[in-house]
Amino acid sequence: MWVHRDLEPEIVRSAAQYPAVLVTGARQTGKTSLLRHAFPDAHYISLDLPSIAAAAESEPSSLLDAPDRNGRPVLIDEVQNAPRLFRHLKLRIDQDRHRNGRFLLTGSQAFPLMKEVSESLAGRIAILHLGSLSGPEILAHPDLAGTSAEELLWRGGFPELYRNRTLHPPEFLAYYTATYLERDLRAQLRVGSLRDFERFLRAAAIRSGRLLNLTEIARDTGIAPSTAREWLSALEASRQVFLLEPYFANLTKRMTKTPKLYFRDTGLLCYLLGFDDPAGLLRSAHLGAVWETFVANQLSHACSPAGHLFFLRDAYGLEVDFVLERNGKCGLAECKWTETPDRRDAANIAKARALLGEAATGPHWIAARPAMTFVADEALGVKAVDACRFRGWWDEPA
Known about the structure:
By secondary structure, the chain is of the alpha/beta class. It contains 18 helices and 14 strands.
């Protein structure tokens, strides 16, 4: 079963404009499958095997010459495993600078990967980020259209969990977590105890949707704050979590005030929180935070790349879950786990609109679960939308 990815047209456009395209994202989000679907004639090379990665660095001609000469794109999977390959790619690109779409790359480790890309391929490569499946991508498939909101949250967005519906998500995600710990993190961290790191993951999961407090997480895990900071950076690098900055008109304050922590996949979040089925999630006090995490990912997906996502919190206790800024204007959104949002759910949007003035001209949303889009606050033009089907912040959602 193939689920269409919204990023595919952008990848195809980028390949027509740049010699190389890099698709980054967490493991198992479908990067390789997407590129092979978009470019079925591409010559495929996986660098997951150490012997192939070593050959790619020491003798790249043996891998690249034949397909490149024949005009076929070369798809190099997990390119971060051969960092010295980047200088060979640069030389090849510069020999024929205006031949586009030659090299299609995937990578799972953002920080070391971006360092190599910025040093070797700046101006020669388009960089795109692929997350797990979004709500609209899942629900657009005819076989998945009836998936409930609670199952979307609990199952998450890893494509394999929808391709093979017999898989039990907690079991799949247990294996995923173990593999992730072994393959990715041990390669870049000095993790003395995998048990400590698993506790760290669960301590972070409990705080998804909350202000980041590394000291508190370190205390609950029994590690030093500096270690917690290093481990959190690794989670960011492998695109398991992201930090959402607060919105301030003063740009420097966005960098100095405390961000909020969100997991990128609610299925992984639910596994770490211990939910064995959707019913357990519905009964839990964590439901609101999991829903907010889901909405954060949907909005991040919907606003990219034209806008920037933030949250708002002032010194007097006013909070708005999400602020999207584009071209100096702001839209505001609150997320509510309800099928019948009303004007009361827009109260903080009204206060923030008055505070921000002309900067917050909208549109404004309540991201909930209504059967259809409707206006919840006529005066402010606040619309209640189904966050599971949300495709565009500034455009009418599907």
